[in-house]
Structure formats: structure tokens, C-alpha cells
Amino acid sequence: MRLKKLVPDWLQGYQRQWLAGDTTAALVTTMMLVPQSLAYALLAGLPPHIGLYASLLPLLGYALFGSSMVLSVGPMAVLSLMTASALTPLAAPGSPEYIAAAALLAALSGLFSFALGMLRMGILANLLSHPVITGFIAATAVLIIVGQVDTLLGVPATEVTALQLLLATLRNLPDDIPLSTWAGLAALLVLIAARLWLPLLLCKLGMEKNTARLLASLVPMAVVLAATALVVALDLEQFLPVVGPLPPGLPQIRLPPFDWNTSYQLLLPALIIALLNFIGSLSVAQAMAARRGERLNADAELRGLGAANIASALSGGMPVTGSLSRTIISEEAGAVSPMVGVLTALMIGLVLLFLTGIFAHLPIAVLAATIIVAAASSIDIRGFARIWRYDRADGLAMLGTFLGVMLFGIEAGIGLGVGFSFASLIWHSSRPHIAVMGRLPGTEHFRNVLRHTVETSPEILFLRIDESLFFNNISAVEDRLLSELKRHSQARELVLILSSVNRIDGTALERLQQVNRDLKDRNIRLHLSEVKGPVLDRLGRSRLLEELSGRVFLSSYIAELALRRGEAGGGE
Predict the structure, then answer these.
(1) Which residues of the chain have pLDDT under 50?
(2) Is the pTM of this model over 0.85?
(3) Where does residue 382 rank: exposed (0-12), middle (13-18), buried (19+ CB within 10 A)?
(4) Which secondary structure element, helix H or strand E, spans residue 448, and what is its range?
(5) How far, in whole angstroms, is CA 162 from its chain's centroid?
(6) Contact 463, 481 (CB under 8 A)
(7) How far apart are CA 23 and CA 339, in angstroms?
(8) DSSP assignment of 372-432, as one string?
(9) Which is nearest to 153 in space by CA: 359, 364, 370, 362?
């Protein structure tokens, strides 16, 4: 019985007819994952085979603990850049110390994620807003593209910032274009053409849309294999940089070397990676779950990502996360269950055992081209425009994150984005929307006088407050009440409609009590209507209801009837 509890639910209910779809999806995922793993490891400053190590055991770890049926886990471009940003101050890229620190970063990130999952902290998904994530991904994508231009063009550059790197690369372009540049540019053109036009062309030729997208997704692997074959056939290794020998065989399972000083310096990057991993992966997993009519467990996602990163650390890998592109392609290829991850891990294992020699002749410029195209596809220009058009405050948070990452680095950029988001939230809540209300003729419904033709009474003023009342907005509310009473000088009854108020804090309560006393001195009665039960319960523990010059009404319509008849009642 205890052994059965250790077996994931999806495996206990696995059906034989799912195997064909899962196997096909695993094959397609493997063909996408191999070139991406090699490229993303190089982007992180690590030897290429580290990317393959990070594509093996993490798939099994997520399959055991995750809740999504189709999420594809592995290295990602943005995560590689974050890894390089965290490790470069600690050791030289590619050195044994650097490789060990990458595994330690994966371990710390995994431990953070798994611990948060055990503590049921899935609510952390709400910490970063969508505009902040959009700005962050776009900025890191630009940094990735700029950082790969020198590799693509075969120009050595050591500048620090993205702008300096780009200018230095363009300034140092040789008169004679080297073979590596031609190889990288050719691969770049093929990959761009395949992404933009190949699916459309295949559809025009009569191919089904999903099949066309599936074939287009395999073009990077075809480009990698074609470039490798050309290098071998024409003996071009002496003319352009190649990946070089990859160690054959499976990774050794061992704990990453632990160092207190290095661990301390990696704590903040590990926490940021864990948080961004969770939010990004959860958004992908939720989208796929909604599409498939499945339920998702946010806490299980934290544990799954934590287990994946811990497994990566144990196998000498790097931080990993869920991939949107691989997940979509895997699902379209027929993925049904997490068995896809298990089968993909087996196929990656076969690549490590028998096929590493093939990729030793792969031109590095071609890998740079695959990174550039993958990074460019993550820049959501339409999303930028849509967010900016819908809400300027969200747009500023997005733009602030983008510029912050570009100018000050990843951690500072995320901090700026979060700061902008909270500043926007505080700004909006400090200026609550307050509407003068009137009754729609012939109904019991009250609506904004500025938006509808309504009936009003000069002696009764209805005001609806569309925000909870806190210390940061009660002054603005009080000012608006007084200004409306000044505009409606004949009003002797003020009714506050609190249908949108979920909470009244202590500061707001005291100010309401003072408003009630001031209005009473001016011979104006204060009434409340449509007060929510929990708010009314809290008010019942204060003196406001005892001192209230008016009454608490169940609805605005009842309040209007009672006050027009001059009744003292109306009922709570």
C-alpha cells in the first residue's frame, strides 16, 4: 500500500493506447531538445554536454512530482542568461568551478521550489504581474540576441553591456567575412524562413495546420545535422569553430560541491530563478490544462519544478524550467501524459551513450543562430502594444522592467518591475472610483448618473464607493464626499453604497466616525446600504453603528423608499 502511494496518479491510471501518442511526442521533443540543450548550455557559459545532462533526470523528477500532463521541462534561453549572470562574478565561464556553481545554483533553486511546494505556497504565482513577466522576457531576449551577434559573426568581443557589445562587434567586423559567419548567417536565414513561412507554405500545399507546425519545429534539428554533415564531408573544422568533443556516456550521480561563500552569493539568484520558473511554467501548464479540460495543482507544480532542478544538480546539470514552445509542439504531436518526459529522458540517454560524436563537428555559429531565433520568438510585440493600450500603469511596469533589465541587470530589473507594479496598485487604491447614483426609471436598480438616464432626488445623495477603505485612500474618499455635498447643497440624506467595499481598516473607521459627527452638526444624516456581511460584522464591533445618524439599509431601493417617505426605519 505504501509503495502504491509513491507511484504518481497518472502512472497508476496509464492506458496502453496512450503509448503511441506519447512515443511520437517524445521523439519530436527529443529532436527539438537536443540542439536547444547544446545551445542553451553554451549561452549559460557551460560546456554543451551540460545541457544534455540537464535534459535527462529533470524530466523524470518532474514526471514524479508535477501535476501537468504535458509540460516539457528542460533548459531555456532566459534561464541560461540568468544562470550566466549569477555565475560570471564567481568563476570563469566553462571552468570546473563555474560548472560546479551551476549545479549548486540548480540545487538551491530546486530546494527553494520544493520547500515552497511542501508549504503550499502556490499563491506566490500572484507575486509578479503579467506585464512584469512580459517586460522581463523581452529584455532578456534582446540581451540574448545581442550577446550572440559576436559569435554569429565570428568577431571577438569582451564588452560588458549589451550596447557596448553590439557596437564593438560591428566596429570589429573584418574586411573578409570568415566562413563561420557565412555558416551562421545561412543557418539564421533558414531558421527565420522556416519559422515565418514554412507552416504557411505547407498548409497551402494541403497539409494539416498542426502537422505543418510540427514539421517546422524540427527544422532546427535538420539545420544542425546538415551543418554537421557539411563540416565532416568538406573537412571544414580548420576554418571555423566547432563544438568539439563531447564526453560520451551518462552523467555521474553525485551531490554538487558545497561551499558556504558560493551558496550565500547564489541565494538571491536561486530564489529569483525559483520564482520566475514557477510563474512561467505555471502559466504554460495552466494554458495547456485549460485547453485539455484538466485540473492543475500549483503546489504540485512547485514540487515538480523543485524535483526537476534537484535532479539536474545531482547529474551535474544547470537550472531548468517549463518550455512553452516544446510543450505546445509535444501536445500537438500527440502527448497524453507525463510518460512523454520519461520516454524523452530515455532518448536523451541514448544520444549521450551513442550519438555525442556527431555533434562534436557542429559549428558554434550555427548554434548561435538557433539561440537568436529562439530568443526572438519570445518577444511579444503585440502583447507590449496590447498592455500599453489597455492600462498605462501596467505599461509603465512592463517598460520599467524592460529598461531595468537592459540597463541595470536581471535582479535590478525585476525589482524595478515589482516596484512599479506595487506603486501602481497603491496609486489606484488611493484614488478609488466614487460614483453619484440614481435609480433607473421603473426599476429597483441604481446606476451611475454619468452613464445612464436615472431619477434622482435633490434631498437624497447616493454615492457608491468602488474600493475597500484603507488608511491610504480614506482622505481622498472624504474629500470627494464633501465636494459632492457642496455640489448637491440641498441634500439632507447621504447614502454610501458599500457593495464594492470588502474591508474597512481602523484608520478609515475613525475617519468615517468623524465624518458622521461633522455631517450631523450640519443636519445631514449619514446612511449605509448594501453592506457586505463580513464588513457589517466588523462594524458591529465598533461604535460607528451606534453613533450613525442614519440607518443601514439592505438595498439602495429600500433606502430611497424609506427616505422619501421620511421614515426612520428601512431595516438593516
Answers:
(1) 1, 568-572
(2) no
(3) exposed
(4) strand 446-448
(5) 23
(6) yes
(7) 8
(8) HHHHHTT--HHHHHHHHHH-HHHHHHHHHHHHHHHHH-HHHHHHHHHHHHHHHHHHHHTS-
(9) 364
